């Protein structure tokens, strides 16, 4: 019989210490909203690229916060922090060296504006910015170039990621998307 943290008994639940495999130091957090992504298993051969199909959907459905001439910005569906954006060229290219000068310039300009918007809307103290080029380098979607912009706060290092190795996200994606998208035109250089 499994028990919850508060002692509630679940007679039909399998206790975590009896799961197959080698026990590890990770806690588990129930996140049923991720099942759609997990069941897809990422991009399978013949699947359409999510970064190619997103611009054809509504901004709300695709979590797009800004559309530029050759690239756009959208929220990461599985963010490291609230406001975690991806800046993506419309063109399906895999690596940064394949980008045109116009794409490189616009990815940079969108990144700068996104930083200003996120500072204005959520008072971020800093940012992690990066690109994982290729599956071996950790790119979840290796076939389509995308840059991560992860807002950071002095207070975002609470006990969850440090001790429980779990990240708590305090805001819903739709709420964050609306806030960033609505603030985008109001931010000036």
Automatic annotation (TrEMBL):
Pfam families cross-referenced by the UniProt entry: HIT
Active site: 146 (tele-amp-histidine intermediate)
Molecular function terms from GO: catalytic activity; nucleotide binding
InterPro entries in the record: AP-4-A_phosphorylase, FHIT, HIT-like, HIT-like_sf
Residue positions of motif Histidine triad motif: 144-148
Source organism, top-level taxon: Bacteria
Binding residues for substrate: 76, 148
Record-annotated HIT domain positions: 50-159
Alphabetically ordered keywords of this record: Nucleotide-binding
Cross-referenced PANTHER family: AP-4-A PHOSPHORYLASE, HIT FAMILY HYDROLASE
Protein name from the UniProt record: HIT domain-containing protein
Species, as recorded: Protaetiibacter larvae
